[in-house]
Amino acid sequence: MRLNIGWLIAVIFVLVGVLFLSGHGWQLIAGYNTAPKEKKTKYDLNRLYLVNGVGFLVIGMLVAVMNSFVDDWSLVLQILFLAVFIVLVMVLVILNGTWCMKNEKSN
Q1: Bridge partners, 101 (sequence order)
Q2: What whole-number distance in Å separates Cα of residue 24 and Cα of residue 17?
Q3: Are 79 and 101 in contact (CB under 8 A)?
Q4: Residues forming beta bridges with residue 14, ordered by sequence position
Q5: Distance from C-alpha of 26 to C-alpha of 34, rounded to nearest angstrom
Q6: Whole-model pTM?
Q7: Which value, to the nearest 10 degrees, does the dihedral of the CA atoms of residues 34, 27, 3, 63 take?
Q8: Which of 48, 64, 74, 99 is the most buried (most CB within 10 A)?
Q9: Is the pLDDT of residue 2 over 70?
Q10: How far is CA 2 from CA 60, 68, 81, 85, 95, in A?
Q11: How far is CA 98 from the centre of its chain?
């Protein structure tokens, strides 16, 4: 097992995931830190932390698994990893725009 850029990327993703799950790092959520206050009030920050924290942890683990077996992987497995990665990112974007919004009925 060599220390290379893949391991560094995996560790960064896991650390950012832990940061989100601990309730910190709102500055790292794309679009939230630059949004006006009216738009920020529409989002449930705890849900944003949960979705992005779990997402970053899963991406970090996927990168670590890929990096562990990179020499043994066939092209099919690499394409499968890429497909899973793309689907995961799409799910994160959709959840950030739907489930992480505050319910208007509760206000």
Answers
A1: 43
A2: 10
A3: no
A4: none
A5: 11
A6: 0.83
A7: -70
A8: 48
A9: no
A10: 17, 9, 20, 23, 35
A11: 16
- 22 CB contacts (<8 Å, ≥6 apart)? none
Here the tokens at position 54 are 């779990």
Domains of the chain, by residue range, sit at 5-106
Tokens of 17: 């995931």
Q: Of 31, 36, 7, 9, which is closest to residue 92 (Cα–Cα)?
A: 31
How do residues 75-104 score in pLDDT, each as one tens digit?
888 888 889 999 999 999 999 989 999 887
Q: DSSP per residue over the chain, as a string?
A: ----HHHHHHHHHHHHHHHHHTT--GGGSTTTTTS-HHHHTTB-HHHHHHHHHHHHHHHHHHHHHHHHTTTT--HHHHHHHHHHHHHHHHHHHHHHHTTTBPPGGG-
